[in-house]
């Protein structure tokens, strides 16, 4: 190498690596594929775990983070699948468990409680995956295996983001005692990795007993949505956002509050979509990837509402953000019926009284943030309509039948407005005046008596506007 020079000292090998890195024997195609499949398996299982734990996780911030992390893992799993497919590999064998100990490792994390879940995900699984990808970059020849190197570097970037989030979350949620209690279980996880020769499989495998703890029984998914203490009245359907929004006698500015409410209420879409994804096995991988992207979009819509309220000077805990939609769908309908309802609602949002209308109201309101949110909400919705066409509509030969079936499924959902009140679950209190007054104070304007007096619930009006009262 001493005698070899590039033209006028230009960087060599297109800059992909040093002479050392491009001239080492590295990994054979077979070994490379073996390593990539292990990382792919980890991303796939992480995606499954993050998704399955969204619905019944009460803490709103964790729901949102799990939605993002599920999406990121689905994207990297997709990239690795594509890469494996480029390497002389059908049959791809991407559904196989690369090592039984890794199967136990992820089964255990899936089935544990929130605190241990965080430790398992962010202190064991993701660090092991990070190590696996770093090891791949260190061992492989950076020239011959450049496409894998590129994917690995991308993945590491987002793994670091996830680890940073996890570290901060654990610092706030897992105390010392909880960590001490978790120790035996955490060492089981370590033993799983050691038995598998680490996640990447390049270490000599250890021989350990791996007695299953949480995964001794088959995992059972909890489809019942749960919320943390800030959601004090989750059955409240006392303020009909759509009737207010579509009533021309009300001005645009307070309508932005109703749209923030509609956005924040979309917490229920990830809760519901997570149930479809978790309870629909056996689809092509692209189904899970697309559905997870949409799930993350819906989580972002919820956070738009959160940001909007904070910016408008409103304490959103006063807004009674209910979970009635995800609760009803997850407990009353089969997964395909839930998907039908989602499709039915979303295709109803495309005409001019849907997302475009919301964007126009936001424009008129003079609130640039609301306009921005509705602009992107609308764009996202166009993508979701495509996801619906690709993965729901194709189940039907006649598109009209697909819409009719969605309508039928949505119509059979029982929203127990009176029943919930009679059972004392909620009074359907009208929270609107409090929230509107708080916003007026922060805007420095006098409340409009007409707007302040708004008092229409979902009790009687739902039937007319049923296609507009769901989330999407
Ligand atoms: Fe949405
Ligand atoms: Fe949507």
Description:
- The chain has 472 residues and is mainly α.
- It has two domains: 7-195, Ferritin, core subunit, four-helix bundle (Ferritin, Up-down Bundle), CATH 1.20.1260.10; 241-468, Heme Oxygenase, Chain A.
- The protein contains 19 helices and no strands.
- It has helices at residues 19-23, 29-52, 60-85, 100-111, 114-139, 146-173, 176-195, 241-246, 252-264, 268-279, 285-311, 324-332, 335-348, 355-365, 368-391, 399-412, 417-422, 432-443, 449-452.
- The termini are far apart.
- 43% of the residues are buried.
- The model has no long low-confidence stretch (mean pLDDT 94).
- Bound molecules: fe (ii) ion (2 copies).
List keywords for this structure.
mainly alpha, 472 residues, Ferritin, Heme Oxygenase, Chain A
Estimate the helix proportion, in percent: 55-70%
CATH architecture of the largest domain: Up-down Bundle
CATH class of the largest domain: Mainly Alpha
- Molecular shape: globular
Please give the oligomerization state of what you see: single chain
Bound molecules: fe (ii) ion
Question: What is the CATH T-level topology of the largest domain?
Answer: Heme Oxygenase, Chain A
Tell me what portion of residues adopts beta-strand conformation.
under 5%
Q: Determine the number of helices (DSSP H or I, runs of at least 4 residues).
A: 19
Structural class: mainly alpha
Low-confidence stretches: none
- SSE string: HHHHHHHHHHHHHHHHHHH
**Rg over alpha carbons:** 25 Å
Average pLDDT, rounded to a whole number, is: 94
In whole angstroms, the N-to-C terminal distance is 61 Å
Tally of separate domains: 2
The count of strands amounts to 0
Major sheet attributes: none
